Structure to design on (214 residues):
């Protein structure tokens, strides 16, 4: 599948990640998104030698949607600061099993990572080694036994959305790790990063990047 470029200038490039693809190279995994973008830049701009590409953030392997890379070290440093200071609005769309109790809600949990199992446990109250995690959502529509949620991520923890939705008994479709009834055949989960909004780190112009979830 050809690379889907969502935004591009001299400082940044945003592309669509497909489910099952890693953002960065991993042993035994298919070509990473980082390698694809480097090859695209090298060919398009006829760049000799190695191409600089800074990884600003990541998406889990089974998740699709927007991934933003930096094309210069200055843009990378400044975007890292924006993410760190929560000055980037991150919107996701998820298809979940069941329906939340409320059409709009804010969820706060305390998450604990279990690295050996690659899973994040959500707790209602603080526990040792936990990190506070918050997201808000609205139900876009309900279809049979599933709901479509539009989610605003207010903190950035590993597996946060997956863990928090599983904790309210609305696991993401296909996400058996967090309570879904069955896996999708292609091992994807029904979660996509659909919108990124921020002030451009160099031009200072507002940027809004969107992706249409399948």
């Amino acid at each position: 599948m050809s690379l889907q470029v969502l935004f591009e200038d001299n400082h940044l490039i945003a592309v669509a990640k497909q489910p099952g693809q890693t953002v960065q190279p991993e042993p035994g995994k298919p070509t990473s998104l980082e390698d694809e973008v480097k090859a695209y830049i090298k060919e398009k701009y006829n760049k000799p030698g190695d191409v600089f590409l800074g990884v600003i953030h990541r998406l889990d392997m089974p998740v699709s949607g927007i991934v933003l890379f930096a094309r210069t070290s200055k843009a990378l440093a400044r975007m890292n600061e924006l993410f760190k200071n929560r000055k980037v609005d991150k919107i996701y769309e998820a298809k979940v099993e069941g329906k939340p109790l409320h059409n709009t809600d804010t969820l706060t949990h305390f998450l604990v990572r279990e690295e050996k199992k690659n899973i994040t446990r959500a707790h209602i109250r603080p526990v040792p080694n936990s990190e506070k995690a918050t997201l808000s959502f609205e139900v876009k529509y309900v279809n049979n036994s599933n709901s479509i949620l539009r989610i605003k991520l207010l903190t950035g923890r590993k597996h946060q959305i997956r863990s928090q939705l599983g904790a309210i008994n609305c696991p993401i479709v296909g996400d058996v790790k967090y309570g879904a009834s069955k896996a999708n055949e292609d091992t994807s989960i029904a979660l996509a990063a659909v919108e990124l909004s921020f002030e451009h780190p160099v031009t200072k112009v507002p940027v809004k990047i969107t992706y249409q979830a399948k």
